[in-house]
Amino acid sequence: MSNTVKHSEKFPIYVIDNNSSDDSLKYLNDEFPDIKVIKNDLNLGYAGGYNQGLKQINSEYYILLNSDVEVVNGWITPILSFMDNNPDVAACQPKILDFNSKTHFEHAGACGGFLDILGYPFCRGRIFENLEIDNGQYNDNIETFWATGACLFIRSSSFWKVHGFDKDFFAHMEEIDLCWRLKNINQRIFCIPESYIFHVGGGTLQSSNPKKTMLNFRNNYFMLFKNLTIFEILAIFPLRIIFDVIASVQFLFNSGFSHFLAVYSAIISFIFFLPKNIVKRSRQNIKLQKRFKSLIIIKFFIQKIVNYKDL
Question: Is 166 inside a domain boundary?
Answer without folding.
Answer: yes
